[in-house]
Amino acid sequence: MGANGAGKSTTLLTIAGLLKPQKGAIYYQGRDITGLPAPFLVKEGIALVPEGRRVFSRLTVRENLELGAYLVKDKGEISARMEEVFERFPRLKERQRQLAGTLSGGEQQMLAIGRALMARPRLLLLDEPSMGLAPMLVREIFRIIQEINRQGTTILLVEQNAHMALQVAQRAYVLVTGRIVLEGSARELLKSEEIRRAYLGGQ
Amino acid sequence: MAGFLQQLVNGLSLGSIYALVALGYTMVYGIIQLINFAHGDVLMVGAYVGFAAVVFLKLSIWWAFLLAMGCTALLGILIERVAYRPLRHRGAPRLAALITAIGVSLFLENSGLLLFRPEIRSYPPGLILNRPLSISLGGIDFTVTTFQVTILAVTGILLLFLQYIVYWTKTGKAMRAVADDADAARLMGIDVDKTISFTFALGSAFAAVAGVLLGLYYNAIDPLMGIMPGLKAFIAAVLGGIGLIPGAVLGGFSLGFLEALVSGYWSSRMRDPIVFLLLILILLFKPSGLLGKNQVEKV
Ligand SMILES: Nc1ncnc2c1ncn2[C@@H]1O[C@H](COP(=O)(O)OP(=O)(O)OP(=O)(O)O)[C@@H](O)[C@H]1O
Ligand SMILES: [Mg+2]
Q1: Which residues of A lie closer than 8 Å to B, measured between beta carbons?
Q2: Distance CA A196, CA A78 (A)
């Protein structure tokens, strides 16, 4: 969590290998992965659902999902994963031949998550998945995120919606101008005075 | 009516060639938003490789096509690697890349003048069957040559091949993904640089076919032969909608027809002025081209 411009997206983009850090190091499963290129990190099990979804708008839903498994050679494996994604997001199955750019915002978010899941990540980075969605859809997306997490994928979630985020998360970190100023279990942070004042609109 | 149909048939040949060249422009533009002004000169190199293949290596014209395609594909990769990639990696402005493209174009033209000499060379006669066929369609008579049919067939085959690559193969999907959003493509594990190289190779190979066809069509090649067809194909790509593959084909054939009609009904001296006037008109009234959505693109 953190205010606009705190460096949340920058952090995720750096972990995913799209930006190189000027200082510091990134460790993943005990290994230094600082500065490694994105394709390599995808192979290592890191997938990012970027801010603003960034689906391939002129490609079909199906092609978007296929590209999510770009590094997978086995065609059977790809279709098995696609079936799983379709099970999770039946809406995408109905719309698989549609151009991704013509999907609604919520559908695009589902596609962006589905596309990342096609890589079978061990670490899923989500950048503001609730942005611009109606409250009902936000709850739906959070339900799916929790489900993915329960099935064994580690999730690093960036959210403006602090209340929702703290309810589903185990640990939370608050970023201010690129630095972690507060961290702890989500439950603790939910109760913390500072957080209530700054993010939850409490008094 | 017969005369009109005859002009259309004539326009089909040059139109095919323009379409083949325009595809290279449009694919490269689609993926890195660069007007690769060296593209016409790649065509010239293709024409010379084809020439060398039939004259010095005594290969058949079909092997000449393949050899020209292979060599220019490598040349395209090399140009991208040496001239454009370093700029891209440094985040240079698009204008810098455009100026570099003009530099590469001049480099290729002058290397051609130096290596191949400024004289005009001719492909030896009889490489491709060129017999007139009289056709009668619903009472209208016109003539097609077997060479014109060959040009059309070669273009048709290449278009099908391209369609297959772009829409059905993994590399083609990667090409479209990079064109759509390069950073998102990286997140999928796509090697963006490799995909761009492939696009240059593909476009350059198509230009080589156009170069050999032009050499056969005009029976003359010279180191500056790529300039005009390069510009015309650029106009064709803009006409159809730059960045759009179907646009390049539509633009190429439209331009071929337009040229044939202007030459046939007016004067062949008016052909080029009309074509460039067309460019000005498109840029003024529909800069996104026939198939493009109207959003102004800055070059
Ligand atoms: N390429 C860049 N050049 C200069 N500054 C940049 C660049 N990219 C990001 N920044 C700055 O870094 C800061 C952090 O940006 P970042 O996108 O990570 O914020 P964020 O926490 O994700 O914010 P938001 O909640 O608005 O998405 C911002 O002040 C931004 O302007
Ligand atoms: Mg952000």
Answers
A1: 16-18, 37-39, 42-43, 47-48, 50, 54-59, 63, 66-68, 70-71, 115-116, 119
A2: 44
- Residues B264-271 have a mean pLDDT of 87
- The pLDDT tens digits of the residues spanning B201-218 come to 999 999 999 999 999 999
Q: Quote the radius of gyration of chain B (alpha carbons, Å).
A: 19
Pairing of strands A123-127, B140-145: unpaired
Residue ranges with strand state E in chain A: 27-28, 31-32, 46-49, 123-127, 154-158, 171-176, 179-185
CA distance linking residue B242 with residue B258, whole number of Å: 19
Q: B100: left (phi > 0), else alpha (psi -120 to 50), else beta?
A: alpha
Q: Cα–Cα distance between B181 and B186 in angstroms, integer?
A: 9
ipTM of the complex: 0.92
Burial class (CB in 10 A: 0-12, 13-18, 19+), A187: middle
Residue with tokens 């995909």: B195
- Is 0.90 topped by the overall pTM? yes
